[in-house]
Design a protein that fits this description.
The protein is α+β, with helices and mostly antiparallel strands. It folds into 4 domains: 161 residues, Topoisomerase II, domain 5, CATH 3.90.199.10; 84 residues, Gyrase A, domain 2 (2-Layer Sandwich); 125 residues, Topoisomerase, domain 3; 46 residues, no CATH class. It is 39% helix and 16% strand. A hairpin with a 4-residue loop joins strand 6 and strand 7. Helix 5 crosses helix 6. It is elongated.
Length: 575
């Protein structure tokens, strides 16, 4: 599963163009086009006739370029932000999908084109990024052939597949009233600086990227376990997080190290014995697919490390690889050999690196979760404050309207020819009721009152108005209660997300500690070692000489000489 920010390949013009790397936005606009050309034309000499007389030194011109470029790649392309867990291309995709959202599916080609209003770096990087988001099965509701992470098959062309925002995405990604906005690259549109994500999305999806001078590799974690951990954070309890891979498998997390630098996770395929001569693989390690797995088994078979008769790949919705063994080969020993010599066991080195306040910071997944949970709580608080302000404003206007009609203030309008005197009259009439209002009366409030149609005044129902105001007051009290008990409100929010979307997202990867398999004990000894004592040779090609033992090409040979010296060498044809 390659990341959309890998394999930086410069074009002739200095831009970056591949399936995930984008032409530097700010530098292309402001700096690179200006500074990449020499000051004196196509050469660096000030004097064309005698270049040896004066030479322009270019050392200073290059001094800050590398740092500027490295900063751009780190901050704007390869490393996700801690706030929402997105890289810029991913954030712009989800923002574009929201703008296009009408409840129906959109062609991915249409989404890609719309995203280019915010991310003008080619359709290939956007198309690859949206497929990767979709394959994680969290934020996008997919229709069509989106590829298969188990087999490594790619998605169909963007004109053939469709997408819309999933219900989970609608619930956790968007809240325009609390979103901070910035101008797009050309100043024509507004785009979010960060999306107000109310969920530890970065840890649920995982992230991988290669920047300049650093990289990041955050492994995916289980949906339900992340919510449980977030609730524990809110309650002040301790928690432990371990990765959960979409390809399932068996993982040894004993050296996970909280996802920080230096940690390591060993992941194995799930192999079982179907019968005496057949093994079946039903789960594969993360970062592999059935094609690469089978290739590694075939290579090990060619090198004589294992012995396989035939391999059948029946993978569709679920993995099923049948390995047929020759007669006389031990299935148990072959399983160990598969782990030792093929991609049936892989080792993954996590590296938690995220952008915090425009700086790359290395941190563990526990700290990432705490930051995400606290941000979710703050976002919920801001939403409640905005909701309370809107309810109070609605209550204020409804109360003003009720008093205005009940006191028949509209009758004396004809006595005042100008607006200033009319407003002064209304302010005086409202003075006895001023203590009951949640805020002061403004000219805008009075303008709305003077624009009420007469038919609405004549049909005014005081009882209905009182009921509407009472309903608003009840809602205001509930919001105030939620603000006073914000932690409980946040816990209920997380629990609601789990109840709605947690079913079917149980842990797939089995956590188990397993021993390291010694290759020398499971390798197939398919050759013979001979020695010629008179001439002083050992090797597998000396078939006319003295037979020593069966061996493999990874064995060591220890030779004791008559003078007491000892020599150690690898198995070879003749040595």
């Amino acid at each position: 599963m390659r990341d959309e920010e890998e394999d930086i390949v410069p074009n002739e013009d200095g831009s970056q163009d591949d399936s995930g790397n984008d032409t530097p936005q700010d530098h292309t606009e402001e700096g690179f086009d200006d500074v990449i050309r020499p000051a004196s034309g196509s050469h660096f000499y000030e004097n064309d006739e005698n270049p040896e007389d004066t030479i322009t030194k270019v050392t200073g011109m290059y001094k800050d370029w590398f740092l500027d470029y490295a900063s751009y790649v780190i901050l704007e392309r390869a490393v996700p932000a801690i706030e929402d867990g997105f890289k810029p291309v991913q954030r712009r995709i989800m923002h574009s999908m929201k703008e296009l959202d009408d409840g129906r599916y959109n062609k991915v080609a249409n989404i890609v084109g719309h995203t280019m209003q915010y991310h003008p770096h080619g359709d290939a990087s956007i198309g690859d990024a949206i497929v990767q988001i979709g394959q994680k099965d969290l934020l996008i509701d997919m229709q069509g052939n989106w590829g298969n992470i188990l087999t490594g098959d790619g998605a169909a062309a963007s004109r053939y597949i469709e997408a819309r925002i999933s219900k989970l995405g609608q619930d956790i990604l968007y809240s325009p009233k609390v979103t901070n906005w910035q101008l797009s690259y050309d100043g024509r549109k507004n785009e979010p600086i960060h999306l107000p994500v109310k969920f530890p999305l970065l840890l649920a999806q995982g992230a991988e990227g290669i920047a300049v001078g650093l990289s990041t590799k955050i492994l995916p974690h289980n949906f339900n376990e992340l919510i449980d951990a977030s609730i524990k954070v809110l309650k002040g309890k301790s928690f432990t997080l371990y990765p959960d891979f979409p390809t399932a498998g068996i993982a040894d997390m004993s050296n996970y190290n909280d996802g920080m630098r230096g940690g390591r996770v060993r992941v194995r395929a799930k192999i079982s014995q179907l019968d005496k001569q057949t093994l079946v693989i039903t789960q594969i390690p993360f970062s592999t697919n059935t094609s690469t797995l089978i290739d590694s088994i075939l290579k090990a078979n060619e090198k004589g490390k294992i012995k396989v008769k035939k391999i059948e790949d029946n993978t569709a919705a679920e993995v099923e690889i049948l390995i047929h063994l020759p007669p006389g080969v031990s299935p148990d020993k072959t399983i160990d050999a598969l782990y030792a010599f093929t991609a049936c066991e892989t080792s993954i080195a996590p590296l938690g690196c995220v952008i915090v306040d425009n700086n790359p910071v290395f941190m563990g997944v526990s700290e990432m979760l705490r930051i995400s949970t606290e941000r979710t709580k703050n976002l919920l608080k801001r939403e409640l404050e905005i909701q309370l302000d809107e309810l109070e404003n609605k209550w204020h206007l409804s109360t003003l309207e009720k008093i205005f009609i009940r006191e028949e203030m509209y009758i004396d309008f004809k006595l005042y020819s100008d607006r200033e005197n009319l407003y002064q009259y209304l302010y005086q009439r409202f003075e006895p009721f001023k203590k009951d209002f949640v805020r002061d009366i403004h000219d805008d409030d009075l303008q709305k009152l003077t624009q009420i149609p007469m038919i609405r005044i004549t049909r005014f129902d005081s009882d209905k108005a009182d009921d509407a105001i009472a309903k608003l007051e009840a809602e205001m009290e509930q919001v105030k209660h939620d603000l006073d008990h914000l932690t409980d409100y946040a816990i209920a929010f997380f629990q609601n997300i789990k109840d709605k979307y947690g079913k079917g997202r149980e842990r797939q990867t089995e956590i188990r500690n397993f021993d390291t398999i010694e290759a020398t004990k499971v390798v197939l000894r398919n050759t013979k070692l001979y020695v010629n004592r008179e001439e002083g040779f050992i090797g597998t090609s000396l078939k006319r000489d003295e037979y020593v033992a069966d061996c493999s090409d990874i064995d060591d040979v220890i030779v004791f000489l008559r003078d007491g010296k000892m020599m150690i060498s690898k198995v070879d044809d003749k040595k």
